[in-house]
Every structure is written in structure tokens, then in C-alpha cells.
Write a structure and sequence with these properties.
Elements (H helix, E strand, L loop, with lengths): L13 E8 L2 H12 L3 E3 L13 E8 L7
Antiparallel strand pairs: 1-3, 2-3
Length: about 70
């Protein structure tokens, strides 16, 4: 996965969440669960790391924004 940039965690309330899951469906389900509670910048795809099991997904959370706004 790409490096986490300083802007992604520049202040309290910002977070980077990395999900490791067996398959795409599970990874996106976790992301959807987070989106029901927090404002997120969602991932549109997963990645596979050679030699590692499953898939990875990274999304960005902002705890200061209302996800329903």
C-alpha cells in the first residue's frame, strides 16, 4: 500500500483505517459499517499484496464530520 501522508493524520480526529480481509466483499462490508458511523473517504477497490493472504483496503475517517450531512 502507499505511504500514509502527513495530511491524512494532520490533526486529532483524522484517521487512516486499513482493513485486511479474506475477500473484497468482506473488506467493503467493513468499510460500509464504518461509513454508517463516521464521515469517510471510501476506497473504491482493494489491493492484493504478493505472498500475503486476502485483500487490503484503506479508507480515511474524519471524526469531526457528521456522516449524514
Amino acid at each position: 500500500m502507499r505511504k500514509i501522508h502527513e495530511a491524512h493524520v494532520a490533526m486529532p480526529g483524522l484517521a487512516v483505517v486499513e482493513v485486511a480481509a479474506a475477500d473484497d466483499e468482506t473488506a467493503f462490508a467493513v468499510q460500509e459499517l464504518l461509513a454508517t458511523r463516521y464521515a469517510i473517504a471510501p476506497a473504491d477497490r482493494t489491493t492484493r499484496e504478493p505472498g500475503e493472504p486476502g485483500v487490503r483496503l484503506r479508507c480515511f475517517l474524519n471524526l469531526h464530520q457528521d456522516p449524514d450531512a
